[in-house]
Amino acid sequence: MELNFPYLTFECLGARAAREQPLIGFEEVVLRSGMPMPEIWARVEQLRQAYCFLPLKDRRASSTDVFKDKMNDERYFGSDKLVPYVHALKSLNNRLHLVLVVVQLMKLPLIRSACLADKLNPCIEDFGESEAIEMLFAAMVDRYSYAVASLQYEFDAAMINLAREMSVTPSYMPHLVGHKLYAATVSKMLLKCAEIFKGDEPKRRLLLILYLRFQKLLIMLHKSMGKLTKKYFTAKRTRIRKLINLTENRNVVGFYTEKALCEIEAKNYRLAFSIMGRIVTKKSEESSHISCVDTMHLYLVCAELHIHKGRQAEAIGILVSLCLGKHVPINQTTVHSKKQVLEGLRNAEVMVRAELNALDTQPAEMTLEEYFLPNKLLILLRAICLIEVLNNRRRKEARKWLNDLQNDQFGPEAVKDSERKRFIREQIMEIQMLHLRLSFLVFGQVEFYTGFKMIKLDELLEKGLEEFPRNMVFLQLWSSLKTIMWYRQRSRLIRTKAGVASLVHLVVAVHNRFGIVDDNDKFSKEATRKAVCNRLISMIETFLPTNVDRLEVEEEQYRILRRNSIYWRLYMMCLSKTNASFKRSKDVLVMAMDECPWDKSLLMEGARVLPVELASLQDLMTEKEMRVFAMPEEVDVLRGL
How far is 300 from 313, CA to CA, in rounded Å? Predict the structure, then answer.
């Protein structure tokens, strides 16, 4: 980063002794625990991974005097070590791409769209994918709609439970030791990255939006694990308020929208609506018309939150005002007549047609920041459709319009040579799915008034996954379906070319369908757990070359999955839960090491599943020059002391 941005110093990526002080106390607890030596070593190693992940930059700095043991020599780095591997960018236009890749490597989930995934990480078959399970939180960080958020909570909980098992240190997952240090490092890194683009406002705003969404994710994770305290949330709220109160951020509406959504995730609905209400009041004093796209997005989010709370009249009022382009107090109930609703729909249709005509004048290629920023066309289409569902469920004009757009202007042939139109096609498909889900949520009947030639949600999802396999929303919705036959749900995810993302969603689908039992029924709980693990093992082995009945599509998937340690760790984890034989577990570990020889977490999982092989695995880590923080001899001496 400093090579490409020499005018900045990234202190957030340098180790500080004070931050690592808690490590000493945790180590002493482990060393005095009386556990077997292999377990003590594994615990100490994980602790040091959680706290010692940052390098030491300067040997002469007094702050590093506490790092006196020889093992810390490996944490120093200099330019002579980096020259063979690091090169400056040839084009300044790639700076944002570089920053987003770095942020991704720090386990920040930011890719929800398949089009964005293809642009940022196009070569998953050649280079594999991220091996951080946290990347699968993308659909939680950037929800595609708050109107149907209640239908997603069960899936979110299942995904978080899987991440608790699969995450490795360092991580910001709240159940892991050292999570505060890593979360602070990622947060500071995002703020530092925003400084890179001080002269480019859209890119600067994008990085700050990602920072705010990361804070929202931390709140969600703490809440789901029962760790969201008043003190923690108050500190988060204070930091967000200080950031937004800066002169350069004070007038950015998008920041206030994200701030309000942080309050929503903490169940502070009244305060969230108050934040949005103050912004609308301020904007209405400047002009009676809604002209800013960020303000339009705020109106849409506010309307969806009202729908989520069951306040349909308020939602319709806000949506009609959005379509008319006129400000309205969003904290007050505004009743619109049928005539006003129709007028709003007509006005919105005029604006939509203007946006559609303007598409032909825009470049076919999208900039990276456009994938993250609100889009006027999509906001208007969503508003029109929400009004139709809430106001008159038997009207089909908007739904037919979306269908026509998908077949004509944004048809499969029309979007082939246009990145922009392909992205809009993907987003319109999300809006269609929102319609079907909202119709079901509000009225409980779908086929009667869908307007898509009686198409059902599962049919639309299959079509979406075929075209956009790496779309996290489509994967999430398909995995959460319980009204279709299991063989169909399973086969679709196996055929979806999304790599490890499709596998993980398949695992969550298994837990959702077959793993739910009464907590008080201990016998059934244990039997169900083993049955789920056996089912998962069967699915994982479907892809292996040893499967004589393997299909061609499963062979293609294996070429991607075999390069990702999540696949192998999941396999070994399931084997250990079913008390598989030593030989079977060892054979899988050997296969895994052949496919992913660079991955230390794989060897750590092997040490947990096969503790008798610990010494061999430690030697292998040393031989492959992997960073071993706790040498066995050192831990043995420390335990004696």
Answer: 14
Tokens matching residue 285: 């004093």
Residue-range definition of the domain harbouring residue 528: 515-609
Phi, psi (degrees; rounded to nearest 5) at 289: -105, 145
Domain membership of residue 582 (yes or no) is: yes
Q: Give Rg (Cα) of the chain.
A: 26
pLDDT of 60 reads 46
Q: What does the pLDDT read at residue 390? A: 87
User: What one-letter code names the amino acid at 102?
Assistant: V
Number of domains in the chain: 1
3-class DSSP state of 56: strand
The answer to whether 531 and 510 are in contact (CB under 8 A) is no
In the chain, % helix, strand, coil (3-state, to 5) comes to 65, 0, 30
DSSP 367: P
Measured over the CA atoms of residue 96, residue 101, residue 102 and residue 104, the dihedral's sign is positive
Identify whether the C-beta of residue 187 lies closer than 8 Å to the C-beta of residue 214.
Answer: yes
Q: Which of 49-58, 396-405, 480-489, 610-619 has the lowest average pLDDT?
A: 49-58
Q: Where are the alpha helices (DSSP H) in 106-149?
A: 114-120, 124-127, 138-141
Nearest alpha-carbon partner for 125 in 493, 463, 497: 497
Using the structure block, give the residue that is written with the tokens 């007549």.
Answer: 337
What is the token pair recorded at 470? 């790496």
Structure tokens at 473: 């929303």
Neighbours of 30 (CB within 10 A): 19
Burial of 487: CB neighbours in 10 Å, binned 0-12, 13-18, 19+: exposed
Q: Is position 532 within any domain?
A: yes
Residue pair 362/417 in contact (Cβ under 8 Å)? The answer is: no
Going by C-beta distance under 8 Å and a sequence separation of 6 or more, which residues neighbour residue 472? 111, 112, 113, 136, 138, 139, 501
At residue 177, the 3 state secondary structure works out as: coil
pLDDT (average), residues 256-284: 93
338: exposed, middle or buried (Cβ count in 10 Å: 0-12, 13-18, 19+): exposed
In a domain, 419, yes or no: no
CA–CA separation, 394 and 260 (whole Å): 33
Is the pTM higher than 0.85? The answer reads: yes
What is the rounded CA–CA span in Å between residue 578 and residue 98? 43
525 occurs within a structural domain: yes
pLDDT score at 62: 42
Q: Distance (Å, rounded) from C-alpha 274 to C-alpha 204?
A: 26
